[in-house]
Amino acid sequence: MRYNIVAFFILIITVLSAWIASAEGVATKSADDLWGEAEGAYREGNFAEAAAAYEAIIAQGKESAELYYNLGNAYFKQNNLGRSILFYNRALLLTPSDEDVRHNLMYARTKTKDNIQQLPEFFFVRWIKSIRDWMSSDGWAMWSLLSFVVAVAALLVYLLIRRVAWRKVGFYLMSLSALIFIITTLFASSSRKILVERDGAVVMSSAVSVKSSPDKNATELFVLHEGTELKLSGEDGTWREVQIADGRTGWIEQMHIEEI
Prior knowledge:
- The chain has 9 helices and 7 strands.
- It is of the alpha+beta class.
- The longest helix has 34 residues, at 164-197.
- The N and C termini lie far apart (63 Å).
């Protein structure tokens, strides 16, 4: 009898050890393994499984434009507009010049219920933003550093070489490089600020009321639906002050939105 009890406990310990080892194996899957699983699941049409694998990669602290883009596609295939628009926006923050991301985001926006007309922008502001979006903040920072190096080299030519022709070349090249340095630094700073601050959000609920103040009993101003993008401008407890594209503002509960 004693031996049967010992054998029983040994069996229990063996089963538990195997279960723990299996759980740890799942938890410690590498990002590469998860990526392969996600791509395989997506190809086979298992979009929920693909999304879960991509989410597991994010849970490991990984971030990339391709990861967010693929996750946005996986959610879009499930008709989950809120999360698809959320992750397309996150991808666009990292690669603002990516036409595929921009196209899919624009297409997903056409599926939302709210047809909100955006406030017109002054053409110069729109033009500056379009130039800024040619590259990411890292790309502009690289051009800023390169132009600074060229400006310093041109300054040395101007100061150390006696020939007038070379001094003129050094002066004009230094001036041009300094101007490029200032412009690219400003673009890098602006892109970095957008990336860090991330003051945008997306409605996740099928429908939500926007209130005149952070109170459930406050006046309802308008209703927003899943996938609508917002700009966050204030906070009061579990409420966020938001602004939509046409300039209207109001308060919405945090649980109904997710920050980009």
